[in-house]
Amino acid sequence: MIVVTGAAGFIGSRLIHALNAEGYTYLVAVDIFDNPEKEKNLQGAKLLQRVDRRNFLAWLDQNEQEVEFIFHLGARTDTTEFDYQLLWELNTDYSKALWQKCTAYQIPLVYASSAATYGAGELGYKDEEALIPQLKPLNPYGESKNEFDKWVLQQQEAPFFWAGLKFFNVYGWGENHKGRMASVIWHAYRQIQETGRMRLFRSHHPDFKDGEQMRDFVYVEDVARVCLWLMHHRQHSGIYNLGSGKARTFRDLVTAVFSSLQLPAQIEFIDTPADIRDTYQYFTEADMGKLKGIGYPHPFTELEEGVRQYVARLESSRSAS
C-alpha cells in the first residue's frame, strides 16, 4: 500500500491521480473527508481505502506491514493562521508522531515542508541543511514547518529513506477549495471572468515596482513528478527545495492568464492587506541544484505553458458546468 495524507487536498489529490496514471491503485487516502469541494479532487481516483486523519496513526499501527511508502502532504497551510497551538498540533506534533512510526516500522517517508521557512530570504533560498536552524520564517505557518525540519535533522534514528520537500508557489488544477490561499492564477481567472481585469497587490517595497514582486511558481504536475521520482529512487535522504528554479513576476503570471484567454491584459493595483503586509515576501527563487545533484532528470514546466494548461482545464470545467 502507498499512503497519501492530505489526499483530498490540492497537491495530495494530484499525486494520487499521478500514481493512478502509473498503475498504482493500492492507495490509502488520509484526510478529513468533510469538504464537498475537496471531494471533487478525488473524482475518478482509484483508491483502496479512505482513512480519517484523526484515526490514521492507530490505523498505521495495525497495518504497517502492508504499507510500502508514505507521502505526508496533509497540513494546515493557511499562511494567515495565527493560532500557534493549532499549527503546532497539525503541522509539527502530528508530523513528529508519524516520523516516529515510520522510523519504528522502517517505512520510507516523503513529507511536505515549505518555502515559507525561508522568511524574507536573508540567507538566500539554498536548501543546505546547516542553514535550517538559522532561518527566520515570517509567520506561524512557516515556523511550524521549520520547527519540524529542525527536529528531523536532530533525530538519531530515521526511516531508511526520507525526504522533506520545501514547496514554493505551487499552482494548478485542484485548488478551488483553498479560497484566499489559492494561487494568483486561480484568482486571476475568476476575476477576469467576472470583471475583465485583474487586481494585484501594490508594492510597498522601494526595490520593487508594482506587479514586479517575484515568486518561484511551480506547476503541481511537476511537484507530483518529483514525488514519484523520489519514491522510485530511495537513495539520498534529506531536505530539498521544490520549485521551478526560476523566479517570475506577478505581472508575468497574470499576463499569461490573459494571453491564455486571448484577452488584452488589464491590471489594476491595490494595497497589500494590512494583516500580511509586514510579512510579505517580495522575492523567492528555489535553488534546485541539490535535487538535480542526486540525479533528478526532468525539466520544469515553463510558467506560460503551465498557465496555458491550467486555464484550459478551468475553461473546460466552466463550460461543462
TrEMBL record:
Annotated ranges, domain NAD-dependent epimerase/dehydratase: 2-243
Gene Ontology terms: biological process: ADP-L-glycero-beta-D-manno-heptose biosynthetic process; carbohydrate metabolic process
Residues involved in substrate binding: N169, R180, H187, F201, R202, S203, H204, R215, Y280
Keyword Isomerase: yes
Cofactor: NADP(+)
Protein's pathway: Nucleotide-sugar biosynthesis; ADP-L-glycero-beta-D-manno-heptose biosynthesis; ADP-L-glycero-beta-D-manno-heptose from D-glycero-beta-D-manno-heptose 7-phosphate: step 4/4
InterPro entries (alphabetical): Epimerase_deHydtase, Heptose_epim, NAD(P)-bd_dom_sf
Assembly, per entry: Homopentamer.
Function statement: Catalyzes the interconversion between ADP-D-glycero-beta-D-manno-heptose and ADP-L-glycero-beta-D-manno-heptose via an epimerization at carbon 6 of the heptose.
Protein name, per record: ADP-L-glycero-D-manno-heptose-6-epimerase
